[in-house]
Specification:
Number of strands: 5
Structural class: alpha+beta
Largest sheet: 5 strands, antiparallel
Order of helices and strands: EEEEHE
Radius of gyration: 12 Å
Strand content: over 45%
Shape: globular
Distance between the termini: 6 Å
Oligomer: single chain
Number of domains: 1
Number of helices: 1
Length: 71
């Protein structure tokens, strides 16, 4: 799944995907300038906690969203 956030014409992209091995998850965050960072999680609960934490931070910073897109 991919989520987008928008603020004054800029966009953040947040993608959740399984690793190739299939036993871990990655959270890929792409900032408005195209820089990408990847966080890896051993289980979906940890991934969900981190996703919610980021969403709260981004809303506090004025980002609107998430706007979801399924792959």
């Amino acid at each position: 799944m991919i989520w987008f956030y928008e603020r004054r014409g800029s966009h953040l992209r947040c993608e959740v995907r399984e690793t190739l091995e299939g036993d871990r998850y990655e959270l890929v965050i792409t900032d408005p300038h195209g820089a990408e960072r990847v966080e890896t999680f051993a289980d979906s609960r940890a991934l969900t906690r981190r996703s919610r934490q980021l969403e709260d931070e981004w809303r506090t910073e004025g980002w609107d969203g998430p706007y979801m897109r399924f792959l």
